[in-house]
Amino acid sequence: MKLLNKGASLRAGLIALITLIILNIAGANPVYAVQKKAADTSVSAADVTFTEIPTAADSLAIRKKQADSVKKAEAAKASKTTTSASKTAEKPKSLWQIFIEGLLGGFTAVILPCIYPLLPLTVSFFTKKSGSRSKAVMQSLIYGISIIVIYVTLGLLISIIFGSDALNELATNGIFNIFFFLLLIVFGISFLGAFEIVLPSKLANKLDENSDKGGLAGIFFMAATLVVVSFSCTGPIIGTLLVDAASKGDRLGPAMGMFGFSLALALPFTIFALFPSALKTLPKSGGWLNSVKVVLGFLELAFALKFLSNVDLAYHWNWFDREIFLSLWIAIGLMIGLYLIGKIKFSHDSDVKYLTIPRTFLAIIVFAFVIYMIPGLWGAPLKSISAFLPPEATQDFNLSSIPDGSGSASATPSAAIPASIGERKYAENYTRIKTKGLDAWYDYDQALQVSKALHKPILIDFTGFNCVNCRKMEANVWSDPQVFSRIKNDFVLLQLVVDDKAELPAAEQFVSDYSGKKITTLGGKWSNLEAKRFNSNSQPLYVMLDSEGNLLKDASGAEIPTSPANYDISSYLKFLDSGITAYKK
Question: Considering only CA atoms, which of 400, 103, 141, 138 is closest in space to residue 263?
Answer without folding.
Answer: 103
